[in-house]
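Supplementary Note 2. Why include the ligand at all?

Several targets in our set were suspected to adopt different conformations when bound, so apo predictions alone were not considered sufficient. For every target with a known small-molecule partner we therefore ran a joint prediction. The input for NDP is given below.
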Amino acid sequence: MTHTPKAGLITGITGQDGAYLAKLLLEKGYEVYGLLARRSTDTLWRLRELGIADEVRFIDGDLSDLSSLIRAVESSRADEVYNLGAQSFVGTSWQQPLLTADVDGVGVLRVLEAVRIVNSKARFYQASTSEMFGLIQADRQDESTPFYPRSPYGVAKVMGHWATVNYRESFGLHASSGILFNHESPLRGIEFVTRKVTHAVASIKLGLQKELRLGNIDSQRDWGFAGDYVEAMWLMLQQDKADDYVVATGVTSTVRQMCNIAFEYAGLDLEEHLVIDERFIRPAEVDILLGNPAKAKQKLGWSARTDLKQLIEMMVEADLRRLKS
Ligand code: NDP
Ligand code: GDP
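The joint prediction is reproduced in token form.
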């Protein structure tokens, strides 16, 4: 008996998580479809780095355009829809708050509507974020911790989260929201602090750069590896019942500690190169995030496998390799 492979549709396929998730689904035998928002620059580099650019089927579309999303869910015949597309950088959300609200907030509703209209049996994953906790209301944040977003990005993501919960409760959609804490990798965008640091360390080591300019280095994040985190996304959609899950390592570190790991690994001294630059200080800061992933462990059997030292060293290595070639 032949059996049809499952089809997965990923918005944000050209991003960090999109690339790792596409690889995971391909390894599991899925047909993988990716929504491709037309851009003038090369956005396929991550998929190429993972060697899967030719295996993904692209569908033109944008989270601002409902009809393109309806067509994407229709033509992919997706069994599972992963909504990872977003204006994902907190800093930019103060410069483009309305675009961020439209793509990261209303955009979620558009994908949910496309699923509801085309195939309400398709399973849906929403990429929610620990930024929703913002000004934290509990020392360790879990699924029951109230939200207090601190940026237009966080505000928009709260809308996306509640839209997901609401469509599950209103229409019985199998819609899950993964509240993921910061996760990084060699494929992380260079504007995010970990990658900015590992890229700078590699550049300094090779004599291409002298200083590293940062904003608030006292803030704390619960950083994990994106490759581990996409497995949690997939596991959520394999459950009988849709639900919401915190995905985190359960360990928090300061930006300074993260920098020290990177500099020490390259045999460099952070203090010789670090410059604090007001331009990178944010209008409102999320001082500390620390997740409690107990539910993901218990219900999904998921836990993080990569600690911050392993993660940052992997990123410095990748940046050294890229810059040398
Ligand atoms: P990236 O910034 O690497 O990727 C974002 C993706 O969204 C890109 O593929 C981008 O396309 C796409 N995109 C942006 N705007 C639109 C649009 N209008 N229509 C369609 N696609 C669009 O993010 P990550 O991979 O790191 O994150 C994935 C998701 O998880 C995001 O929703 C993010 O907010 C969320 N998240 C991420 C966390 C993290 O630490 N990484 C933590 C918690 C949540 P293009 O390449 O063309 O710009
Ligand atoms: P975020 O948690 O989604 O905002 O992820 P980022 O990697 O952008 O930022 C993590 C933390 O690093 C935040 O507290 C930032 O204020 C802090 N930070 C300090 N300097 C910088 C910088 O130069 N760039 C970025 N992106 N963040 C910085």
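Residues 7-183+224-247 form a domain with the Rossmann fold fold (CATH 3.40.50.720). The chain has two domains: 7-183+224-247, 189-221+251-289+306-324. Comparable summaries for the other entries are listed in the accompanying table.
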